[in-house]
# Entry
Amino acid sequence: MAITLKEVAERAGVSRSAVSRTFTDGASVSEKMRRKVEKAARDLGYSPNALASSLTTGRTKLIGLISNNFHNPIFLQVFDLFTRGLQDRGLRPLLVNLSDETDPEASVRMLRQYSVDGAVVASSTLSPEFAKAFRDAGVPVVHSFGRHSSTPQVHVVGIDNVECGRMAARTLVERGYKRIGFLGGPQNATSTQDRFSGFMSELEKVRGLTLSHSFAEAYSFNAGRAEMMRLLGSKPAEAYFCGDDVLSIGVLSAISESGLSVPGDIGLIGLNDMEMAGWQNIDLTTIHQPIRQIVNSSIELMVAMLDEPDRYPEARIFPCSIVERGTLRPLGF
Amino acid sequence: MAITLKEVAERAGVSRSAVSRTFTDGASVSEKMRRKVEKAARDLGYSPNALASSLTTGRTKLIGLISNNFHNPIFLQVFDLFTRGLQDRGLRPLLVNLSDETDPEASVRMLRQYSVDGAVVASSTLSPEFAKAFRDAGVPVVHSFGRHSSTPQVHVVGIDNVECGRMAARTLVERGYKRIGFLGGPQNATSTQDRFSGFMSELEKVRGLTLSHSFAEAYSFNAGRAEMMRLLGSKPAEAYFCGDDVLSIGVLSAISESGLSVPGDIGLIGLNDMEMAGWQNIDLTTIHQPIRQIVNSSIELMVAMLDEPDRYPEARIFPCSIVERGTLRPLGF
DNA sequence: ATTTACTTTGCAACCGGTTGCAAAAATACT
DNA sequence: AGTATTTTTGCAACCGGTTGCAAAGTAAAT
# Structure
């Protein structure tokens, strides 16, 4: 079906090596030869088979892009940035949806069968061990949005979720809230755990507060809404730090449905600063996570690792910042 | 680095063919041989190189998944469904983000270099010609969410956008709206054109209406909001058919910001029935597009085409239906 | 015009598998 | 037991490329 190198060589009346060389940059080919080969290739509509060449070069330019988060709209942006960034560098994302199974071995095996040059794990919920399985199998890996550790086993690019928790705590205290709640995402997500621990550790330093916490079943609108509905059944807190924006939006919906107002009756702060948080009918005060920077840095790291597979693992942590909108009462009440 | 067939063969003391056969189902291998080889393979941690075998078998199990719509949250669901569906059938999605360039040739070339077994074009804005470029290059292709044509050149799975336009028109007329507007997505998107033509052709049959139309710059919240803001500058229509839900939500935001109410002052009907449309603080009346069915059918079609590449092109059109929520005044005013 | 140095080219082996074919082994039939 | 049939196995060529090496060709230096 497809044209092969051999056919081009025959048509141009040269050896197969010559053809190969004209399509390999850095190889030694005279101008004359190159023109002859290119002409023949053009006539025949030849384009080299990347997979065949990967066999000898050991590079496929395929990068596994692994995620289990196909329900949080913010990940659409993440995929957009990753795919474009990788493409711009001549790399091809092989997408792996982990929503059903979370067995690292199966993914590792599959990606090794396709000889990916590297793997990006884009998930704030998977454990560092997951990413480590790739490293152990000799596949360069970057864990984006992963848990920050002082002794990282794999490259991690993301934010300091513990610090974000503290930041949210300080903000709520500053606004004079006394009865404060944590409404997190799934309890087994590393990001939830870290945000929770940072949030609580900061609040425990302050006297005279009433603290509560609960967890939604997923990072999704419906889960947030359901959990808030439940909380509204008994006496809710004055303000909540919500695990994530999409959760917050569900929470807002529950609050407004029950006839209460934000921030009049209940204050709310989210995390992510997704596009929707800025929509006028939502107007959510939240903590901005620099998605773009995280993705770009992840890609740069991945590219660096292709040349230097045993690069010493590092954690790249980007600062977050509060974006003030309309769901918290103002300073100095 | 990785273990090869040859090493397994040596350890098991058999020929390379024998090893190959134990990993190819349907091949003739005795039980004894199989056990011996599997043992050696397990000891060594061998897993076959899918790309090397693709060289002789001509199958990579790679499927190009091409889209240019990374800003509409509905596509996150589309990607979720596609990736899982393909994975479940042992196929691997190679994701191509077309946001920057729309040159079919470049994508075709790239996907041919990776010898994909097929390509899915998931886009409601790309023209049929785009998908046809794959077919012409001998790559089996399915255009999901593509333009419906009575003489399809490639397999298309989606909805009848013209009919959706008509449906929206009938609904608005039925509710007694007289000044009616079309607020579409980008004018060069095939889905916009078809919805527009259906909508208008139906309305032109009715006497005594005042019609208007305009187009947002993209299928996005901000574009919808901006366009509605502009329309609110002069005298807006009584009701709008909006190109898409995400656009509608932007429109809602603009309306509420300008102090008007929905459906009191302005009625609105969207298209897609994305999850968000059902959120209580949005509550958008819209036309449901059966995403899941479209994706599943696309995958089935693709799988069928892998066995029968020259399958006669067909169009699979799924019916849409109105989902009544709170943005149109009720019947019988 | 030679010799020397560098560039370009083709040969042939290899990457990690698959597969048609014939020999070898196992099984079935007289 | 010997022969016919079926199953299992290995050989060797092939898939579509790359690359080390030596031969051939060019250019520079003497």
